[in-house]
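Researcher: I need the complex structure. Ligand is phosphoric acid mono(formamide)ester. Inputs:
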Amino acid sequence: MNTSHISSIEDQNALVFTGNHLLGIEGLSAAEITSLLDLAESYVDFNRQEEKSLTTLCGRTQINLFFESSTRTQASFELAGKRLGADVMNMAVASSSINKGETLLDTAMTLNAMQPNLLVVRHGSSGAVKLLAQKVDCSVVNAGDGQHEHPTQALLDALTIRRNLGCLEGLTVAICGDILHSRVARSNILLLNTMGARVRIIAPPTLLPDHADRLGVEVFHDMRKGLKNVDVVMMLRLQLERMTAALIPSRREYFHHYGLDYDKLAYASPDARVMHPGPMNRGMEIASAVADDLNISLIHEQVEMGVAIRMAVLDALSRERSGGDQ
Ligand code: CP
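Model: Output:
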């Protein structure tokens, strides 16, 4: 096994990130974000090795508590913890005592009594993860809370952009689609603004939050105008499960106006890259041909970066808990 990556990872003690929890991008400085991205960069190389086991979190217990469905986030947090040597337990929420009426906080306190070191939580209510973090003794990572934040998604997106375009500062990034329901959009807007990128959001008025213009972004309703000369096109999933009213006329019409195809993409910079956090609704917000075009699509790389970013976050939080002595 090539151990050179391990020593370089363990040598990175100059972490600027100092939080006990990662609850959101809001409040993180550019230096903290850069520090997490740099640490994750080491893990990208490490994850491409044949053998992928470290002892960084040996003896630590990580519980993944997902109240909403997930493929990418839960799997990558599990892999991240295991590759760092933690004991990882995925809580089976569907068969837990939540079904018998136990509350979120009672569930959290019950798990807390088992002395975990890290709790990774996804919940359908905005603010639920922060509330839980106030009640437990361990570090808490927000794996997505309602329409509020999905901080590790924004970090992995930033790492993907930085690796492909060299930097974040000065880039123009268009975030397109269902902004209203998207915690991914919110975390990305916060991160990209902090890192000096220009952000455009493109959506029909029905899929924008109130006061979208106060988010520090340029707002467009026309895809072709909004995509003009952008460096990155970040598509969002239509979150049909969160729509309580008819917010789009029809799926076909939505794709006609807001679905990313080669025709609309032609308005972006010739070197523009396409991203999507997944899961995708193919043919609704993005054409399959664009999503699968390896010359422009970074979607698979986003998934790969997800493991590295989550390793960096778990590592950084455990360093903070142990007083930075690792
Ligand atoms: N992007 C994302 O959060 O995907 P999952 O819902 O599959 O975790």
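Model: Summary of the prediction. The radius of gyration is 20 Å.
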